[in-house]
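Can anyone check this?
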Amino acid sequence: MITLGINAAFHDPAAALVKDGVVLAAAEEERFTHIKHGKRPVPFSTWELPYNAIDFCLKTAGITLHEVDHIAYSFDPHPLLGDHQDKLTVEIPLRPEGTRTSLNPNGGLAWENPYAGMFLSAILNAPGHLVDGVPLHLSKRFKGATLDTLGQWHFVNHHLAHAASAFLPSPYTKAAVLVLDGRGEQVSTSYWMGNGNQLELLGEVALPHSLGLLYEQMTSYLGFLHSSDEYKVMALASFGKPTYVDYFRSLIRISEDGQYTIAPLKLEETFGPARDKGGPLEAIHFDIAHSVQTVLEETVLQLITWLHEKTGAENLCMAGGVALNCVMNARLRDRGPFRNIWVQPAAGDAGTALGAAMWVDAQQRNVNERSYEMEHAYLGPKFADDEIERFLQWSKLPYKKLDNVAEEVAEYLADGHIIGWFQQGMEFGPRALGARSILAPPFPAEMQAKLNDLKDREDFRPVAPVVMEEYADTYFVNARKSPFMLFVNDVRAERKHEIPAVTHTDGTARIQTVNAGQNPSYYGLLKAFREKTGVPVLINTSFNTQGEPVVCTPRDAVESFWTSPLDALVIGSFMLEKTGSSWSRQSEAVSKEFQPLFS
């Protein structure tokens, strides 16, 4: 049985394909269209489906759309229709002023947005958009699909899709599940108990109360793009003090049953005018970020303490956009009551495509046994050496074939160079995990600033380390297997001088561990780098530049390489190198400065 999962309602549109419980492919639309996050979460974009990602999934399975048995869409519009359930039309205002409504007559939630009818109509008509709206250049794999021949359509509750994405591919067959999102159909937070392939809803927090929306509002106030740049607020927090924690604590009220309320924010009245995009960052901005981050961590710690008491489970699985907050995750790991925590690597809305597909697959096959565990996220497009070389030859680009990729590239990195690294299947989710990465040595300390300059991003942003799994605890406190870069750890004091570039201002690092089974070429490079330098750690940041999604294809990689200050591109078994690189001139000095590490 083949099930296609689709996320398209808000942002981060994505597709995933599951066959008899096994995930065959998953990808985000942004990687194909070069539009960051695929689209903005506005009602006018809801009709846009992830056609490119769907096409990739179908191509991976070698099928066409009409061969798909079930289609799972990760949002259910019916709870929001209210008294429009049986109507054939909705009204869309020409001018939205003064059109906000009160509660619907049937007691359902209000349509706070005057364009809610357009939003819901686009979702209800998604099957038609799927068969009729596909771009011409992708039509081959959609040919023959009509509303009459389309596989069975399922609207899956958004939070259920998040919960399924967290639990069903996890290492655990029994676990508590927490979904922390900005918004779903009617809720922001939900609690579940997972057993086998089943999920039992234990409770939920209704909108408008939402920790995710609180963090979104703070992101906007601090001059960043909401539903996109929340991770910048998390990074900013490390530079601040808890000056305003009492204010944020006063907004949130938690009750004993996992419920909470959040009072309306009065940010400009409390703190003054919002920071303009690109404006100067002042102490107040650092302190606000630190304070809201601290209160988020405190609040979620209380919520999972209730969930643990409710379920008695040893394991916790998490999803929803808030679950991408790796600083919060580390606090839950270190101070929370659960023995183990697993976070879906595509915890944001993109992951609901995977969760919806896995949920429908399990329910339709009516099985309680697992046949898949998400040990890696390399579920996207991959390219063999012959494909890559044909493209390089066609493009008339100078390149060389490496006899031993790990050895030669490790030597290059040890000399202080920065490279683009393009290998195997593209990652699913927002993190680059060694398939579409920019790699550099973790020394000297100035390497962090050089990488931020290369990517044209803010100076306060840290860069993350990847470490051989067996050496993780040697370099990082309380390090566990962490292949998805979703937790931070303190850098051991005695190791900071070896990896200064990845040590954040607060002494932490957001680590990725890797073993030979997860990614042989990536692990082999780390091993060779350790043999040459004594350090089993590299900097790993995403292979993209400002405003661009992570690269997907060889063409993307080459374009990013030649339009940025990267020294070299290692793509498959091939290497492209720039001449006259400033890094080449500095490599001798770098080698001399860190010569004690190379013994």
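Reply from J.R.: I decoded it. The chain is about 35% helix and 20% strand.
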